[in-house]
Amino acid sequence: MMTSSLLWLTPLLPFAVGLAMLLVRDRRVLATLDVAGSLAVLGLTLAITGRVVGGGPVSALGVLRADDVAVLFLVLIGLLAVAVSLATLGWMRHQLARGQMRADRLPYYYALVHGFVATMLVTVLADNLGILWIAMEGTTITSALLVGFHGDKHGLEAAWKYIIVTTIGISFGLFGTVLVYGAAAHAQGGVLAGAMNWSSIVAIAPRLDPGIIRIGFIFVMVGYGTKAGLAPVHMWLPDAHSQAPTPVSALLSGALIKCALFGIIRFHTIARAACGPAFSQGLLLTFGLASVVVATPFILAQHDLKRLLGYHSVEHVGIIALGLGFGGRLGTYGALLHVINHGVTKALVFLVAGDAIGRYGTRDMRLIRGLLGIAPLAGTLMLMGAFSLAGTPPFSIFISELMVIQAGIAAGRYVMVAAFLVVVVLIFAGLIHHVGQMVFGTAAAGASREPESAVPMLGLLLLAAAMLLLGVYMPGGLDHVLVRATEIIVG
Amino acid sequence: MSVDLATRLIDVLGALLLFSTLLILAAGQLFRAIYAVAVQSVFLAIAGAVLGAATGNPDLWIIAGITIVVKAVLLPWLLIWVVRRIQIPREIESVIPINATLGLAAGIVVLAFRLNASLGPVRQAITGNALPVGIAVILLGVLVMASRRKALVQMVGLFAMENGIFFTAMAVSQGMPLIIEVGVILDVVLGALVMGILVLRVRSSVDTDIADLESLRG
To answer: Rounded to whole angstroms, how far apart are CA atoms A154 and A239?
Structure first.
């Protein structure tokens, strides 16, 4: 198949699958379509990765384009889609059994999930910065409906905050895009074909007017930063990520906030070349440090399991922003690796948390006790996931956090590194305390002791395997892509 | 149309755009805010037509037409329909007094124009004062949303913000590519529909405004 048609097919397929789902009423057929559709997406993203690794960036009509930065995010989305679809098999059965999901609304749920995945794929495949924005707002529209899907008061409140705050935020992103486009059109002396394409703007970036790019980048940073959940514009995130149906939470925290970071990375690359690295890196550091610090007290004092994970995502996007802000090859490489590591681990922990919440019928961590006793596999995975999130070896997040810290020391940002280390230690203590209490001890009599079923667990094991593997071994192919992606960003 | 005349017209329209945003901020009644944003959209469409005539770019005429249909008619109609349907009190309650909001607004406008003055030759790429007007309208839109505790007024603020962005986008060179503008407008419409659905769903279950819900904290 031609490479350019691969690029078109990747988002179109989940979109078409989503539309087809609207016509299906049978629960089994829907679940099968869900898993098959996600597997196909993963296959397509891997196929694109193969082409990019083999022959460099590929583009389709100057609208879509995949380079090494994009394929990192693409494969993450594909992998999470598959894991989430498998886990949904078990989750959905429980939801229906407990009457928390109405059978007649299933087609809408599955269709929205696939539409959501399709918009995320367009976001990272877009070459045209306008398409990037349109797809990003598309992710808000589809996922806001999913956040409020249950229709309870809390879910609707979270969905409203989510859509209104991120839409305002993303409007800032559009204005920033307009300014960068204006600067590019000015530098080219008129509107040429592809004047809005990232690849052509980057090529002329050193000639862009630094004044307007600075203002443009500030707007983009606030805009896409809101969507990424960077403090101080993160207020919506713990609400939305905790109120969404659990498989959707896994996608929101694992993949969507990374897509917003992808947008920031694209503009960061332009701003670096146009006004030197200091400006955009300084801004990234400010937002990154704010996120890491602001999230900490909320993590320590939290009782709601899913809110804990939401605030924890704020901390981790902060770490990625810090890595990009410290800059250099090491910091950028570490930040990109952290995108993958955090995406995989956070999706895993959200899915395990969903299982635990189902068993105990509560999200209050004080009431969840002895998970290991009633669900040994889920208990083990939660413990492993928590240690990984807290940054302990031999899990993947340790590696990328270490790189970010090394980059900070290399950049001479000792105060920031010190603050970061203090926060990481505090969060380690808080997280292990919370999770230790949930995993060990004796479960209350009311908790469901239903045996764990194999197929949904397969999705979790897939993520756990990736999390362990990346902690002890860096596959040559991934390293190659990361090195080239780093070169694209820092030159 | 000469470039000089177009620049002067754009500046007049920019002033009208700013003025209509201030009207939204000052509105004490929901319908007035909705009418103000509809009128603002008409100014935006006229700006599109002026720039279309000045640059000879037919895309801008199309965008002007879409703006009239979608932003001046369809979206305000949607808002009015929702208001009628949910029977809410039509007075707008402000978190901060309206006079204080207007004071803040004046500060924002001055700031936006001073920022513009600090920019170099790149200002030539954008017709007239469209850049500071865009920045001011965006920030004023945020002010509307932050100071009003009513879902529908927040939506009005959002539409005003989008109008500010479009105004600047049209004035940059020859506007964004048509397909992008259409995609953005489509997003705005879909987003407004989803917001409308959420407002209606909350009204049908609990008798409050969705923007007033505050149970999620900490």
So the answer is: 9
